Amino acid sequence: MDLKPKISKLCIVAAIVCIFSNWKLKAEAKNNFELQTDNFTCSSEDADYKIIREYRCGLNKNSKRRSWNMEFKLAQPVGEHDFFMKIVLPRASPLKDFVLLDLTTDGCQLLANRNQVPLMRLGRNMMDRFSNFPKQCPFKANISYYIRGFRLDLNSLPAVEMETPVHIEFRYLSKQLRLKWITGYLVARVQRLSEKKRPN
Hints:
The chain is of the alpha+beta class. It has one domain (32-192): Ganglioside M2 Activator Protein, Chain: A (Distorted Sandwich), CATH 2.70.220. The chain is 22% helix and 37% strand.
């Protein structure tokens, strides 16, 4: 009797069970954590207001469900630009800080969500829910561009299984004038959900 077909089917079933179990464990792990934002500020080195006309950044007033906001208006259109992002997980001395991401990318490609590393592409998709950023260059002048009520959902990311502080810096850089027209600094922490917030 030829047992190969039966053995092959059993292997496939076993593989599916293993994959599903692993996915379920990761999903449960992610549901046990949340990202709490502690501070969000921004600055600009465009002291003469050649590019940016006005900007403001901050957190909402709800301390239990902190979200962050950024709004800016440009004095002139911005086409070609670079976008920089750095995500650092600080570590106590003598350990070195763990750099999760340190990347400079073409800002127009980021707006259009083309040719991006998966983490950046995921972030751009999430931003659509919270911002009125254009889907292609340029950023236009005299329009209030905003990110409002942004709160990172860890369920959208690979499984997180530890509590840790998180420092994020991002900036927009004009290729033409070589000016960092806005830079954001975010201090947050991944923390375990309280029993009240934990999903059933």
